């Protein structure tokens, strides 16, 4: 297997993002529309947090609703993105190796890492990206 390959080679660069002024109904719609499980929360391109689909499931019955329906917005109107998102982020840089990234994800309880240059979001890498990279090696 290749050594010292930077995570920038497997990260998603066209990242779906939301802002603090967006609402959870919009976030749910983006999760379903783009078939993703993590959305960075930004101000401009500055990363503020990350919202996962699991975060929404914790406050709603979203998993009991099929993909064409939207959860009763009453539940979502009780919370803001800032209240639900993860704020204490672990970030990696584009030069972080795939191996180092995999070690972080394997030792933590989350499945996506923002890829940043300083505080500026340049991509996102997920456990799915890592698995696909591994599959491509064989």
UniProtKB/TrEMBL annotation:
Keywords: CBS domain. CDD domains: CBS_pair_AcuB_like (cd04584). Residues 11-68, 85-138 form the CBS domain. The keyword Ligase does not apply. Transmembrane segments: none annotated. SMART domains: CBS. The keyword Glycoprotein does not apply. It holds the Pfam family CBS. It comes from the Bacteria. Gene3D superfamilies: CBS-domain (3.10.580.10). This is CBS domain-containing protein.
